[in-house]
Amino acid sequence: MAPRIQADKTISAPMFKKMLTSGAKMLEVNKAQVDALNVFPVPDGDTGTNMSLTLNSAIKEINLASSNSMEAIANALSKGALRGARGNSGVILSQIMKGIATTVASSEEIDPKLFAKALKTGVEIAYGAVVKPKEGTILTVARVTAEYAQTIAKKAINIITFFENMIAKSEEVLAQTPDMLDVLKKAGVVDSGGTGFVCILKGMLKGYLGEEIEGAESLEVSPAQMPIVDDHNFGTPDIMSLDDIEFGYCTEFFVINIFKKTTLADIDRLREYLNSIGDSVIVIGDLELIKVHVHTNKPGRALTYALNLGELGKVKIENMLEQNRELKAQYEASKKPLGVLSICAGDGFSAIFKDLLADQVIEGGQTMNPSADDIAQAINRINAESVIVLPNNKNIILAAEQSRALVSKRNVYVVPSKDIPQGLAAILAYNSQVKVDVNLKSMNEALSTVRSASVTYAVRSTSIDGMSLKQGDIIGLDGDKIVKKGKKPEDVAYNLIKGLIDSDTELITLYYGQDTTEEKASALAEKLEEEFPDVEFITQYGGQPLYYYVISAE
């Protein structure tokens, strides 16, 4: 690598911004390859996508920062990464970035010692965010890299050599991840999250060197807002619109009997003046009639200026401050003690959670992990003092936990449901009439009362869980373990359910997805009823993508 510079030993704030942007570009370009490294051959391999969306959110926030100072960039990095954090990998990355940002914020420049310290802090925060950290993941790659960075930073070293050595160490430990996690070794891949971390370091170095990243896409990312599926707070004001308002008076009027001396340029000047004293300005018309609308704290000034053009007619001034106070009072009066947010994929499941009195349901699941900010916004829409969140997916639990930091004026609790059957069991145990601690106890206990299974397809050929799979094989999972395979979803589901049933099984519910018909699901249930007459079988429409069946055994 031919260095652009040879002796620089520090990174300025503008250069740090450039390096972060380049790191995000490198990850964006390689996210598909990172996704493909997902060790589990079901269609939820979105590690690269989650990490990319997380970092892109941070870059977007940095680009909106008030200045190019290190403090402003660092604060935006931390805030943006948290708001955009998606999935376990994205949450871990956001915590690494938080530690880096916190450490460098008060410095004007970053030298190798400070960066090494910042990376170490980020790793410590990331480990703290994971209840049971696993070695052989992004955490390991980042930790070993940080430890090595501290060692080499003690020497007189320039930024280029420092990053080259860090990258070499990160690639070395990444290559060792299959030896740390048996599941990686069996699949013949390195850790996907660790690969994403290496991509970021490589991109940052390219940014420092001023090198373009070939094929990099634009970083202008549209907010991936998860749609609100249902809201039971109909008839109450939307708390998202009840922030303190800047301009208190909605002022409307016509300018009539316009003076002969008035010109079209005067109308333009009226528009410019109103924009200087308010917002939401509308000035339309001609020398016959002008219609004016403005939100301002100086309605008298707006009227006085317009009098220079002609007479005033149909003047209306509304006090939006009072309206805002009334709406807030109405909102507070209707607040309830406790609410529930559920996250799921599939219109059938959404309807079920709605019927079971979830206050909000947002879309999320395999391949569509909502960010911490998506979850926080949904929580904020629930008019309750406390909110219980049901992630219903093991890869959403961390983001749900992190959403607490983005929520104000509410107590947020996460019942760690790892799948839809657990989430349904938990909400069935929910009672809005009892205190939150009682609900948390009963809902958490309910998680262990149900056994979950599912039927999907292998997205690539691999060997795992003692099975040799080909791309496209139908696979049956008992929890997270692949236990059945076949060519037809119903055949795999039949054999899977037979293995689930024991002497204690009383009820099997088959939730069929968008790629399965009601007729096929019913026929499968009838076949099972004939063989197991003591077990009740129920079919329900889940509408979930990617999974032919989600199965609950109780």
Describe the 3D structure.
- The protein has helices at 13-36, 47-63, 70-84, 87-104, 112-129, 138-153, 159-180, 182-187, 192-209, 264-277, 299-306, 320-333, 347-355, 372-380, 397-402, 420-428, 436-446, 489-500, 518-531; strands spanning 11-12, 109-110, 228-231, 249-256, 278-285, 290-296, 311-319, 336-344, 360-363, 384-390, 411-414, 451-457, 462-464, 467-469, 474-478, 481-486, 507-512, 536-541, 549-553.
- It is an alpha+beta fold and 554 residues long.
- It has a six-stranded mixed β-sheet. A five-stranded mixed β-sheet has the order 3-9-8-10-11, with helices on both faces.
- It is globular and about 90 Å long.
Spatial arrangement of strands, main beta sheet: 16-15-12-19-17-18
Main beta-sheet strand count, sense and barrel state: 6 strands, mixed
Mean pLDDT: 87
So how many helices? 19
Number of strands: 19
How much strand content do the residues show? Answer: 15-25%
Determine the fraction of residues in helical runs and give it as a percent range.
40-55%
Distance between the termini: 61 Å
CA radius of gyration: 29 Å
Helix/strand/pairing class, anyone? alpha+beta
Low-confidence stretches at least 5 residues in length (pLDDT < 50)?
Answer: 1-7, 216-242
User: What's the overall geometry?
Assistant: globular
Oligomer: single chain
What does this entry show, briefly?
With 554 residues, the chain is an alpha+beta fold. The chain has helices spanning 13-36, 47-63, 70-84, 87-104, 112-129, 138-153, 159-180, 182-187, 192-209, 264-277, 299-306, 320-333, 347-355, 372-380, 397-402, 420-428, 436-446, 489-500, 518-531; strands at 11-12, 109-110, 228-231, 249-256, 278-285, 290-296, 311-319, 336-344, 360-363, 384-390, 411-414, 451-457, 462-464, 467-469, 474-478, 481-486, 507-512, 536-541, 549-553.
